[in-house]
Amino acid sequence: MSDDPDPEFESVADRLAAEALIVDVDGFEGPLDLLLTLSRTQKVDLRQISVLALARQYLAFVETAKALRIELAADYLVMAAWLAFLKSRLLLPPDPADEGPSGEDLAAHLAFQLERLAAMRDCAAKLMARDRLGRDFFARGEGEGIQRIRTVRYTATLLDLMQGYARIRTRDDFRPFVMDRVDVMTLEEALERMRGLIGFAGDWTDLLSYLPDGWERDPVRRRSATASHFAASLELAKAGRIHIRQSGTFEPIQIRARGPRDAG
Amino acid sequence: MQDDAHDAPEADTGSLFEAPPMAEQERMVEAVLFASPAPVTVADLNARMPHGCDAAAAVEHLRRRYEGRGVNVVRVGEAWAIRTAPDLGFLMQKETVELRKLSRAAIETLAIVAYHQPVTRAEIEEIRGVSVSRGTIDQLLELEWIRLGRRRMTPGRPVTFVVTQEFLDHFGLESARDLPGLKELRAAGLLENRPPPDDLSEEGAEDQSSLFDEADGAEDSAGEDTP
Amino acid sequence: MQDDAHDAPEADTGSLFEAPPMAEQERMVEAVLFASPAPVTVADLNARMPHGCDAAAAVEHLRRRYEGRGVNVVRVGEAWAIRTAPDLGFLMQKETVELRKLSRAAIETLAIVAYHQPVTRAEIEEIRGVSVSRGTIDQLLELEWIRLGRRRMTPGRPVTFVVTQEFLDHFGLESARDLPGLKELRAAGLLENRPPPDDLSEEGAEDQSSLFDEADGAEDSAGEDTP
Questions:
Q1: Cross-chain CB nearest to B48 (options C26, C85, C94)
Q2: Which residue in the set B86, B127, B190 is minimally distant from A136, CB to CB?
Q3: Of B1, B67, B171, C87, which has fewest CB within 10 angstroms of its CB?
């Protein structure tokens, strides 16, 4: 093919241009892209392009690549084979026996593809050059604005805040948790009491006798005080301060201070 | 429109409660559009506003009110949004987000989806003359600029791609029909899916007529009948 | 104001370039307030706008323009923002992604910071009567409702906490001084319990007066002289 008389491709400048393209072969997005770039050298509207000349340019490109021992991807070679076929169709008189499409039809389709690709490329550039969101024009900056406003209005959070503050500031006036706990005796309180009392108890004594005055009659207070004293006596037994015993289920629980005589 | 009936309220016995006056409806639309970073559809506006409101009319009033102002009411597909006027972008260096650099393949693929939608992967490859890598499509899907449309009713039932509302919003387009140069391209026959002459399948020729008819409805009703 | 001089431009030889007309400055302020993720101060507006602009005047024009509209230009601390008109809050209901209810401990801690700022952790614990968990403080810091103030000039140099502009913004307050005092809370029936009749101490009253003296200076000159 290189011996084709090719007036469009004779000049040294064109050959140099082709070699420059070769060097940039990785920069092409496939054979169609390369063809589109080659077609620009014709300096005509894509509608008037000479597909035959383009086919020659492409084939010369592939030849140069071979001469420079540059590996071309398979689709470039497939395109080269197809263009060689197209070139022969365009150059030879049509064979009436051939059922396939004419060389002109094939050439027209290739021209259409190139024009369409060029158009899409042009559109892509126009698209990217448009005013763009986040660069030229902007959306509402405060994405959470809605949520914030709603939170204020519907969870009445400012009210919560004021109530919260009111609660704290008035707590000292009423000491509400002291009021709440008036009928509760804690383990710590019971333990504190029993530690002081246990030294006086040399013999077995009913645990219930340790309940403080005023806690024996009211059932609620009695229950709380009994529970805390029982828990406290277990603590003291664990600490080795007392002995604890019960003669049977539901029998009184008795405790006794542990003294030196228990050593054995 | 609701305010046409304001001097004959007795005649309007259809609804139990009077719809708010149009000026009030306009305020409501204004509040909602201002509060939402993303575009809001007319349907969504109507659903939020009191019964009997006409959000479409209120939006139109509002759009006119904001003409020439620092922010504008813009249409994005079937939805509406408030956006700063493009000529004031220079004030906004602080808000500017770094736009992700797209590869040439991605940019071209995006343009092809926008102008040819709904379009199959094979068609994208046919137009570009090169295979489309998985990564390119993934990147555009991830940006939410394209999404899957209906399957093509051809052998293999290939998926198609269409552009999204985010795409329209990002590029300041009211609809896919407002893409630059679309009319010229169509007139020049460059949006046709013309099959190569040696390809004797009937596939291509029949779907090109439906190209933009489908695309029109694609934004909001895409693919609900796709199994 | 810049536009007062519009009929005598020769007289204004001070600046090389004419400042944009006030209508244009108003557009600029509108766009910036809309697009900014947080309220913008007049100083910041002036810094962004072309030389010779008068942002304060433009904001004032804009504020008046939005009076009675669906959104208003409101002052938040030292800054300005566009906010939904309070009567239209009901439209925003559906926007809410997640409503997080603050724990009682967090609300009380926040209230103490708001009323007593700048306040140390030890003081918060003293006022609440219980210890304040690290998590509670962290949560409030993360919400950006409180932030660290200056260190107290006392042994150990403890950090203090003050409320942020986001806090004011969220609770719709112009300043922490807008928080109602104890008397007002009581008058509004927010104090469920009546104080015991024997508690006629002046404590409450004096407490309250000092309360707001403290709060006054808190925003910008937090706590350097408070032992």
A1: C94
A2: B86
A3: B67
- The structure tokens listed for B201 are 């399948």
> Which fold would CATH assign to domain B2-94?
Arc Repressor Mutant, subunit A (1.10.10)
Of A159, A170, A172, the CB nearest to C191: A170
CA distance C194 to chain A (A): 9
Return averaged pLDDT per consecutive 10 residues of chain C, 227 residues in all: 42 61 93 90 92 92 93 89 85 60 83 87 86 84 86 87 82 71 62 42 37 38 36
What interface predicted TM-score (ipTM) does this complex get? 0.58
Q: Which alpha helices (DSSP H) does C94-133 contain, by range?
A: 104-116, 121-128
Angle made by CA atoms C123, C108, C128, in degrees to the nearest 5: 40
DSSP state of B143: T
- Give A186→chain B minimum CA distance, Å: 55
- Judge whether A160 is closer than 8 Å to chain C, CB to CB: yes
Bridge partners (DSSP) listed for residue A65? none
- Left, alpha or beta for A73 (phi > 0: left; psi -120 to 50: alpha)? beta
Q: Looking at the complex, does the CB of residue B163 fall below 8 Å from at least one CB of chain C? A: no
Residues 90-149 of chain C whose Cβ lies under 8 A from any Cβ of chain B: 91-95
Region B206-218: what's the mean pLDDT? Answer: 41
Taking the model in full, what pTM does it have?
0.56
pLDDT tens-digit series, residues A167-186: 777 665 544 344 445 677 88
pLDDT digits (tens, 9 = 90+) for B120-146: 999 999 999 988 887 888 889 888 899
From the options 1.10.3720.10, 3.30.70.270, 3.40.190.10, 1.10.10.10, give the CATH code of C104-212.
1.10.10.10
- Under an 8 A CB cutoff, do C84 and A171 touch? no
* Alpha-carbon gap, residue A123 to B184, rounded angstroms: 11
